[in-house]
Amino acid sequence: MDLNENDTWSAAQYSKFEKERNRPVMDLLEHIPATDVKNAVDIGCGPGNSTELLQAKYPDAVVSGIDSSADMVAAAKKRMPNNSFELADITQWRAEGTYDVIFANAALQWVPDHATLFPNLIGKLNNGGSLAVQMPDNFEEPTHRLMRAIASEDRWEGKLISASKRVAREGAEWYYENLRNKVNSLDIWRTIYFHPLQGGVKGIVEWLKGTGLRPYLNALDTAEQVLFIDRFEKELAKAYPVFDDGVVLLPYPRLFIVATR
Ligand SMILES: C[S@@+](CC[C@H](N)C(=O)[O-])C[C@H]1O[C@@H](n2cnc3c(N)ncnc32)[C@H](O)[C@@H]1O
Question: Which of 41, 119, 194, 245 has the most crowded CB, counting CB atoms within 10 A?
């Protein structure tokens, strides 16, 4: 059972694009300054792909993970049977001690109230420890603008209002302003990845079914989901050209923050 029943994640769907989703994990790991890392936790660990790379970077550290989705925790345990994974919501999580690295890749955009969350997480760091965060910064990309525009159509009778409001992420300036006095160093950057996806705009839909489309699809019945995706594909086709090899290039901006105590 997921902690939030309306928010069921599928490890299998999410893992379809693991190579692409791992790239920012590696880019984030590369910028963590701490070298003597004894313990690390991956919050919103998903199916364990990011946890595995975190453990590979710090082979001698005790690395654990938490996630609020039972399907994700089960997949992570299967993948890394020697590590500890806990079914827990990040907002309710009571860490047992303090950490050298708290790692959150593609997770905190789903967690509200960053004004409370980020200082809390920084408070769980050892001196010299880092909070390393990556969040998609794609709210204004055509994919997400189109999702919101279709969701606002009358035909859904208000069912999709909350889905359009989900993202908790602030802008880079907000994180600088709110975190700079709480840490010794603060590294913020943004990268745009260009993911070549097979299958034309259907490839984009397949990608988004693992993440950003879920709140919309979860709120609809099966027939409505078909209708929503059909509308979405038609609009996507106007915004994303298909190359003659059938590939669509999906620009994907991501915001990175490494806050070190
Ligand atoms: C996009 S996946 C990221 C998975 C993995 N960290 C990676 O780098 O690919 C987001 C994960 O965050 C989890 N998540 C979302 N909200 C959460 C919360 N409030 N508490 C714990 N986990 C949460 C989801 O269950 C999902 O597994």
Answer: 41
Please state the atom number of ligand 1 nearest to the C-alpha of residue 110: 16
Q: Which domains does the chain have, with CATH numbers?
A: 11-260 (3.40.50.150)
Quick one: average pLDDT of 53-74? Answer: 97
Residue type at 123? G
pTM of this prediction exceeds 0.85: yes
- Sheet strand arrangement including 125-136: 84-87, 62-67, 39-43, 99-105, 125-136, 248-260, 185-197
Distance 87 CA to ligand 1 centre (A): 11
Averaged pLDDT of the chain: 92
- Residue 55 pLDDT: 98
Q: How confident is the model at residue 166 (pLDDT cuts 50, 70, 90)?
A: low
**Best of 110, 218, 256 to mutate for ligand 1, by most ligand atoms within 8 A of CB?**
110
| Mutation choice for ligand 1 from 72, 85, 109, 211, CB with most ligand atoms inside 8 A | 72
